Amino acid sequence: MTFSPTDVRKDFPIFNRTIRDGKRLVYLDSGATSQKPLSVIEAESNFYEFHNAAVHRGAHQLAEEATDAYEGARAIVATFLGSPGGSDEIIFTKSATESLNLLAYAMGNAPVGNRFALSSKDRIVVTEMEHHANLIPWQQLSARTGAELSWFKVTPDSRLDLNSIDEVITANTKVVSITHQSNVLGTINPLAAIVKRAHEVGAIVILDACQSVPHMRIDVKALGVDFLAFSGHKALGPTGIGVLWGHMNLLDELPPFLFGGSMIETVTMTSATWAPVPQKFEAGVPNMAQAVGLGAALDYLSGLGMDEVHAHEVELTGYLLDKMKTIPGIRIVGPTNTLLRGGTVSFTIDDIHPHDVGQYLDSQGIAVRTGHHCAWPLAKCMLVPATTRASLYVYNDEVDCDALVDAILGAQKYFGRF
User: Fold this and answer.
1) pLDDT tens, 362-375?
2) Where in the chain is the domain with CATH 3.90.1150.10?
3) Which of 51, 208, 359, 400 could form a disulfide with 65 if both were Cys (CB 3.0 to 4.6 A apart)?
4) What is the Cα–Cα distance from 121 to 274, expressed in whole angstroms?
5) How far apart are the C-alpha atoms of 256 and 183, rounded to whole Å?
6) What is the pLDDT of residue 245?
7) Where are the domain boundaries for CATH 3.40.640.10 in the chain?
8) Domain 41-302 coded CATH 2.60.120.260
């Protein structure tokens, strides 16, 4: 590891404050949203202060500066993902949720004969561990088109069951949309076999990378996927900005999602033609300052080094898992080792509701998430009504992990369980 979490925290203004009667903030909820370094806050603020104008529209200097800043952010994202087609393959949205809905709705609008058009003869494949944002859009597309929805099941050890891969990804499968890393289990899914099988039958592969892009080196060409979505706010960036990456030939064939200004080539009173990708998918004035902030966030992560970020999280996750295994009455909901595993650790405690655990931890200055984490089918699969979830990131260290463990023991004592 080449960076120090202690030094990293100095870049994040929020860690200068205290909470709950002067307690140190132990932030373990980056799986929900990450904190923002000063460089990101300043990038967004400086855009509004010095360069604010509508991009791609005005002929004046501010508009030129705004456009340069916005397109510069697009170039940063393209480099960060290893986009083989460069910036033109990067589409800015308001969130990963919108990116995934963009794909589902655009496919639903595809005319007969278009490669993305679906019918009752086709199949859509997801997994049992999907976030609702990568499940419900495909449920709805299935309902609209009659396409069959199928899924990979999750094994008791929190891994995808690929034993029946040929029976799940069948010859009539057109879409395989899966999470790269579970936001509940921390499981990192093995993509190679899934991508290989999907492409054998001519299906496209969509990757929900919300929990992987901020935490490990991503190269879309090496992954072999066709589309990838992630959100800026989980990657140290602002809220209100998401990314959809796709191969240019696929984006060219995909119908638009939203209609309006900036995405057209020609318009008459009865017809319109579309601007080239990526403008084709960016109707209206985009989230300009947020895109600039995302560029600053990815620059910050690149400065830390994504291999170093991942190595830090693997080491810290192993430390936390080992500590938690010593706690009586605890169940880790997810892999209990660091093999193909990220820094999201969900757990339950015997006879204490996860919401009560979360409230007690909050009283000790520790921020975690409780609930089903927008993955209700997975919670049912894992036989839990909810979990308490701690998620680690670049500003966390062993001291934070120790504080969590001590507070869990304190919760057990407080609720009279041990």
Assistant:
1) 999 999 999 999 99
2) 5-30+305-414
3) 51
4) 30
5) 29
6) 99
7) 41-302
8) no
Can you give the pLDDT at residue 57? 79
Per-residue pLDDT, 417:
73
Tell me if the bond preceding 190 is cis, omega within 30° of 0.
no
- Work out whether the CA dihedral 405, 407, 412, 413 comes out positive or negative: positive
Mean pLDDT score, 235-252: 98
Q: Which of 210, 374, 381, 401 is catalytic?
A: 374
Token pair belonging to 65: 């500066």
CA distance 378 to 22: 37
Of 79, 89, 5, 84, residue with least CA distance to 295:
79
Which residue's structure tokens are 């509004």?
48
Domain boundaries 5-30+305-414, CATH class: alpha beta
Q: Is 374 a catalytic residue?
A: yes
**Is beta strand 173-179 parallel, antiparallel or unpaired with respect to 148-152?**
unpaired
Report in angstroms the alpha-carbon separations of 257 from 28, 98, 280, 306, 363: 35, 10, 9, 32, 44
CA–CA gap between residue 99 and residue 134 (Å, rounded): 10
- In contact, 198 and 207? CB cutoff 8 Å: no
